[in-house]
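As noted in the main text, all predictions were made from sequence alone. Below is one such record, for GrpB family protein.
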Amino acid sequence: MTIGDLAPYAVPVVVEDYNPEWPVWYAAEAAAVCEALGSLVLRIEHIGSTSVPGLAAKPVIDILLIVPDTTDEAAYVAPLERAGYALRVREPDWYQHRCLIRRVEDGAPCDVNLHVFAPELGAVEIERMLVFRDWLRTHEEDRAYYEAAKRELAQRRWKYVQHYADAKSNVVEEILSRALQG
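Prediction:
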C-alpha cells in the first residue's frame, strides 16, 4: 500500500553510467540511518544496481535495512522521519516490507529508497536481494545482460516507475535462478 498519493512518473527513466560516488552516498546514508536507529539496526546493506561496480543504473541508492520487527513502526519510523525519510510503502502481504524514501529536494545527495524488513519475515527476499547483488558483482556476462535490458526499457515511457521495475522482472528472475543454483 502506497502512503500518500501515487503520482504518475512524469519524466523518462534515466539510466546513468556507473558513478563511483554511489558507494560514498550509500555510506553517508547508512551512517545517518544507524545514528537515527542505534541498536534497532540489525543489518544494513547497499543493494540494487548502484551497489554493483560498473553497472549502469537509475541514480537512486537502494538500502536494505533489517530491524527486529517492521510492524512496530513506532520504534523506527519517527527517528527515520527526523533524519529526513518519509514512509511511502507499507506491504503487509509481502514479508511486512516497508519502504521509506529520501529525495534530493529533501537534502539527500541523491534519491534514496530504504527497504525495511525483519529477519524472520523477510528472510527469503533478503537472501534474494543479496544473492542477486553479489552475483552481478562477480559475473560480468549477466551484469552486461541486465544493463542492456535496463537501457532498452529506459527508452520507453512509463506512467509509474514501478512499471519499469516490473518490466525487468523476467530478466531479474532469469539471472537470479542462475545465481541461486551457482
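The chain has six helices and five strands. The chain has a mean pLDDT of 92. These features were considered when defining construct boundaries for the mutagenesis experiments described in Section 2.9.
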